[in-house]
């Protein structure tokens, strides 16, 4: 079933995030469409939502499986007056909002893995892709794309990630309303974004740490120029990942340049 655009628009009317909602049946990527709209002047809080994507993007040229009728694919336009190096904080903020939305359905079962994965057990249920466009004086806009698997069944996942992906329906044992989850996600996103603009990153960081399931984990990080192992040591005051080597020395890892690998 397609989204009821009119009903969603009236539910979200006046909201900081989603107050302007553009619904499409199929797009290549909601991030690309949101970027095009932002370039044309779309205001902060604009959301582009699609029923399916033909070229859903992950990070580093990876793709995001985006079949019709079952999941949420949305992109949010933000125009925060922050220094460019703080833009990755938007990924963590969106992660907190998405984790709280999922926790309302699956209490105590969702955790965030730095920087952009939401996991139930060890399976990914939601991914976030943040893309930033710069202007002469700083950030022009940030696009935060969120893919949340809702009613997709295990058999529908591509073989390549069938063992590593899941959906809310698979975990909760029942179908859920995409519209209700969209409204809840937009409301929570708006609340966290408000808090961020007023008080800075620190409340987001605290909540992120309380929802992150990485305490005590040993990580192997792949950089452009090689790999490094270390123990998870939290996130810095700007959102960078901290890993500790055998001697306890900390290395900062920023979202753009690293991938956490298994084991
Ligand atoms: C992400 O990338 O997790 C970011 C995904 C963002 C998708 C949203 S949908 C709306 C908006 N518009 C877009 O075009 N993108 C955003 P990354 O960490 O690189 O993870 C990608 C990897 O996740 C893939 O290589 C697969 O292994 C796996 N994957 C692909 N589709 C999946 C799905 N639907 N559910 C779970 N895992 C998936």
**Main structural class:** alpha+beta
Q: Helix tally?
A: 6
Low-pLDDT parts are none
Question: What's the mean pLDDT score?
Answer: 93
Bound molecules: biotinyl-5-AMP
| Strand and helix order | HEHEEHEEEEHHHEEEEE
In the sheet with the most strands, the strands line up as: 1-2-3-7-6-5-4
The biggest sheet amounts to: 7 strands, mixed
Distance from N terminus to C terminus (CA atoms, Å) equals 40 Å
The coarse silhouette is: globular
Percent helix: 25-40%
Secondary structure tally: strands:
12
Explain what the structure shows.
- This protein is α+β, with helices and mostly antiparallel strands and 263 residues long.
- It contains six helices and twelve strands.
- It has helices at 5-12, 30-39, 89-103, 168-172, 178-199, 202-211; strands at 21-27, 47-53, 72-78, 110-113, 117-120, 123-135, 138-148, 218-223, 226-235, 241-244, 250-253, 258-261.
- The strands form two sheets. A seven-stranded mixed beta sheet has the order 1-2-3-7-6-5-4, sandwiched between helices.
- A hairpin with a 2-residue loop joins strand 6 and strand 7 (138-148).
- It is globular and about 60 Å long.
- Bound molecules: biotinyl-5-AMP.
- Biotinyl-5-AMP binds next to helix 2, strand 3, strand 6 and strand 7.
- Biotinyl-5-AMP (BT5) is lined by residues 29-31, 53, 56-60, 62, 64-65, 73-75, 116, 124, 127-129, 145-147, 149, 161, 165.
